[in-house]
Amino acid sequence: MSENDKKHGSTKYDTVRKSKNGLLERLRLDPVKDVLTPGERVIHEGRIHWGIFLPVIGCLVIALIIGIVLHWFVGAVVVLMTLVPLTSKTIRFYTTLLVLTNKRVFVKFGYFNKDLIQIRISRLESANIERPFIGQLLGYSTVSVLGTGAGRIPVDYIANGREFVRALEKITLAHENSDKRAETKKTEGADVKNTTNENTNTEDDLPEDDKS
Q: What residue ranges in 29-187 does DSSP mark as E strands?
């Protein structure tokens, strides 16, 4: 690993490359890796749940029933009609991005969509989880992040939504505490400066005899 990769926090991505689906994961995550700044590292990644294929599975079951009850040709037509949503869901499954770093949140939908939504931690307003009934049973949720200027961005079918939001809240809290400490130091520095100036002004106002 080059020194430049270390600075850009790419250890996670090098590990991903060695995984079973390393090539697909690398292609999916490269847009984030390309824009990481020095000192920025990946904290957490939202994983897409297989539940994204539930509508397609439902259509295939209906096609099977139609093929058995009515005619195989009708069932085959319904199966062909599911190819379009199946392709769409597959692209979403492998290309949807929800990545948290120590500085930003990244969101991206689709392979052909080149726009990578970036929200700085300092501009993040809130993050919440929505869990439909089926999502509670199967273990997926919708994670919504709200950023100043970016609006509400929902990401469906996240398998580890609770862990992602927990990591996001931890980073946000650490960032707020850091800002408070910086503000406190700034205020204390200003108070010391004002006190010094007041003491200097007081000495200047004293008569010559008092100064001596």
A: 42-45, 97-101, 104-108, 117-120, 124-130, 141-147, 151-158
Give the position of tokens 């297989």.
50
Q: What angle do CA 40, 156, 96 make, to 5 degrees?
A: 50
89 is a domain residue: no
Does the residue 151 lie in any domain? yes
The CATH number of whichever domain residue 174 belongs to comes to: 2.30.29.30
Say what the pTM is.
Answer: 0.68
- CB-CB contact of 108 with 95 (8 Å): yes
**Sign for the pseudo-dihedral over CA of 38, 39, 40, 43:** positive
pLDDT digits over 180-212, tens only?
Answer: 666 666 665 555 556 555 555 555 555 555 545
Is residue 144 a part of any domain in this protein?
yes
Number of domain units in the chain = 1
d(CA 175, CA 177): 5
Mapped onto helix, strand or coil, the DSSP state of residue 98 is strand
Span 28-54, pLDDT tens digits: 566 777 788 888 888 888 989 999 999
What residues contact residue 5 under an 8 Å CB cut-off, 6+ apart? Answer: 11, 14
61 within some domain: no
